[in-house]
From TrEMBL:
<dbReference type="GO" id="GO:0009341">
    <property type="term" value="C:beta-galactosidase complex"/>
</dbReference>
<feature type="domain" description="Glycoside hydrolase family 2 catalytic">
    <location>
        <begin position="309"/>
        <end position="467"/>
    </location>
</feature>
<dbReference type="GO" id="GO:0004565">
    <property type="term" value="F:beta-galactosidase activity"/>
</dbReference>
<dbReference type="InterPro" id="IPR050347">
    <property type="entry name" value="Bact_Beta-galactosidase"/>
</dbReference>
<keyword id="KW-0326">Glycosidase</keyword>
<dbReference type="GO" id="GO:0005990">
    <property type="term" value="P:lactose catabolic process"/>
</dbReference>
<keyword id="KW-0378">Hydrolase</keyword>
<protein>
    <recommendedName>
        <fullName>beta-galactosidase</fullName>
        <ecNumber>3.2.1.23</ecNumber>
    </recommendedName>
</protein>
<dbReference type="Pfam" id="PF02836">
    <property type="entry name" value="Glyco_hydro_2_C"/>
</dbReference>
<dbReference type="InterPro" id="IPR017853">
    <property type="entry name" value="GH"/>
</dbReference>
<dbReference type="InterPro" id="IPR006103">
    <property type="entry name" value="Glyco_hydro_2_cat"/>
</dbReference>
<dbReference type="InterPro" id="IPR008979">
    <property type="entry name" value="Galactose-bd-like_sf"/>
</dbReference>
Amino acid sequence: MSSDESPVSLSLAGSWQLELDPNDRGVSEDWFRRSFSREVELPGSLDGQGIGELVDLNSKWTGTIFDRSFFDAEKYASYREGSNFKVPFCLQPETRFVGVAWYQKEFEVPEGWNGKALTLFLERVHWQVQAWLDEREIGSGESLSAAVELDLGRLQAGQRYRLTLRVDNRLSIPLGENAHSLSDHTQGNWNGVVGRIELLATEGLRCERLEVFALLESRSIRVEGALQGALQGATLQLAVRARRGMEVQGGAALVVQETAVGEGGVFEGEIRLGADALLWDEFGPHLYELELRCGDFRRTEVFGLRRFTVEGTQFCINGSRTFLRGALDCCVFPKTGHPPMDQDSWREILGRIKAHGFNHVRFHSWCPPKAAFEAGDELGLYFQVECAVWPNAEAVLAFNSPAGIGDGEEVDDWVYREGERVLRAYGNHPCFVMMACGNEPGGPQHEAFLTKWVKHFRKRDPRRLYTGAAGWPELDANDFQVVSEPRVHQWGDGLDCRLNGSPPATTYDYRDCVSKRQVPVIAHENGQWSAYPPLYDTGKYCGHLKARNYEIFGAGLAASGLEEWVSDFVRASGKLQALCYKEEIESALRTPGMAGFQLLGLQDFPGQGTAPVGVLDAFWESKGYLEAAEMRRFCGEVVVLARLDKRVYSAAESLEAIVEVAHFGLRDWKEARLSWKLVSQAGAIVDQGEVDIPSLERGGLREVASLACSLSKVVNACRCRLEVELSSGGESVANSWDIWVYSDPLVSLDASGVAVVSNCSDALTAMEAGMKVLWYADAAWMGSDVALGFTPIFWNTACTQQQAPHTLGILCDPEHPALKRFPTDCHTDWQWWYALRGATPLNLELLAGQVDPIVRVIDDWYTNRDLGLLWEASLGKGKLLVCGLDLSGAENCLVKRQLFHSLFRYLDSPEFAPKTAVSTEVLWEMSGGKTKESSSLGQSDSC
């Protein structure tokens, strides 16, 4: 092969020799001089190829185990042994290896490479590496975020050499065992090398630094960099071409300009792209390619013309205000156990995020590979990248986490080194608009340390905005604050959070939080609402990480006789989860001056005890209850919002609403029209109207209309939907909100043969007389210590030390005659707030699955108890309806009154014919064998 035909790179992918070094003896024993006995494929990880120790009870996991009951609880006993070993707190590899591993491969230098300077390129090694060429050490490197490049020098063409790598994935620097860059809760702490593994050949030149600064006013770029090995005064040619996506458009370069290399190889130049040069943003992700030429040396870099700045408490992209609708990427990749390194995979992941209405991705305590940045550039997403650390999260201080940051530990130097590596590797990508040191730091000196860190990197590279960390601390030096204050549920709120403690409305916002700050405020990890995990999907986990946690939960569900309900549990709890996310996101959008949110999450999180918080599963695939188009109605660049004081009305009232539009779209809307209608569940239009809006400027929240609608046309009880659509010039957006209207009269207890009781003794007495009985039960009577709220579980009960609520909503049959006069879907909806507040989930285990509750409670996936709120049975000539719903104060609450009316009419009808018989002994045992005085219904919140 002639020199002009020689390749510029030589792939080293394929079979390598391997030797494990668990006792770390290899360096002292000069293992680089010897041959190794095993084979392994690179790129790849040891865990992914079944190399390492089988996981068992003695495995030392990288990551805090928040609930250690697995190690001693009787219910997990069978999972702690032998081949049935399964853990409930994260996805499970078959094998793990944490320590030192040695990799070795021989290669031949291609003809034509004689005299060329060779560089070893390891795109992502996990995560500290030393290298030898034959018996000569060539260097070492470390990074959890960027490639490691090592200089091999000039080698002889046609000669064979032996390359030896020593890779260490131990947590030798206190980066935080829960950091998503290495924790078993996420990708796993793998040992290996993924992505490109190759030798690069040059004539001796090497680009040490290349930075492209966009100058929007003049449609120019300023190029700065440094060439190693270049002669001072050498001519450097800079050429710019337009790109379509990641493909270079045909034709000549837009502009070619020459500059000279200065002292030390430093160069700079300014290139005008022309007045018609296109800007980069989420709506038009226009890209350009810069090619640097110096003799035979070539280097290309993709860039976009964009400027991401702060204006007051909001962000601007190219001078226009934007709102960050963010989703977290927590580095969860079950099939491989490490992030994908190819563009197609990242196009698919990021494409799904954008399809759901998001324009922003926060990479929680990790940094993605170059392919992700390339896909983000192409799709027009805004990235927040972090330096791969979670040093001492305050949430886990009780679990002896590392000492923190700023205390003189090696992590302090690491976050400077890693920050520099991240900026050098990815700093030119236009999608890279924000950077943080890491997540939720700790340590007595962390504020002072992070203040210096922010100032250092902002001066080092002002092309993006900086904050010390996500979650906290709020520093004066921060360009923006990521705080948990503007979200529905704070850690530890339990049943006191807004959606559990306050009647449903759509008026709440976070203006008090925003108004007391001078810089943009982003909601930190808002959401965290769980749905029942899709246990039927264990077959999808066909790669490295297995869903053994799902297998444990599935076995528990089967032991309770509830396995047939799993799909219904997923869907019903998912619908409730979606309601909470809608209110969570709309609360942020209707806040004047708010900068954005970072939702946790769009995707399920498989670790920290298992947190199925996503409307997408761990593979970024739909779980079937909230599709992308539906989510975009309330999570998009233009969203219609309605402020409703309440969701429950009497037919004698009028519905009043203020309509706003959060408009962060591409352009101002001219001559817009807002149309609205209130539609009953039967499809009848209760009222409708239109409002002309002459102009609607982009870049903020605008009030556009006030609506008033009489509800007198609503007959009986009815769920209605307020539908609002905004249209202009062929574009349209729509949103909707459900309300409930009740018009039935007050209920009298005058039906003959029906008894309403509150204790077992009275219930038995009435049934012995052949009566129909409505028995109000409570926790003291039914042996239940389950905390029920309106919302589903926050994150999970294992990680939060049993924080309430402990359940995932209700499941019912809307067609059941007991609910005939109480309009409902199969899942928890807003009207249920009134009846669920103070309700008692009844434990039905003593009935051994004989009773199918009319209203079932979906329990925590760890416990899978058979719980109900409304169930029926017969005893002798009597018939029993047991109710754990709180209907006290029904005379003052429309919802409770309507539900009581529906139940009482059911009791007084031939349709009340329980199919299951129950014994006196079982009822006594369920009630604790106690008696209790009957009591009148008390007062409760009116609606």
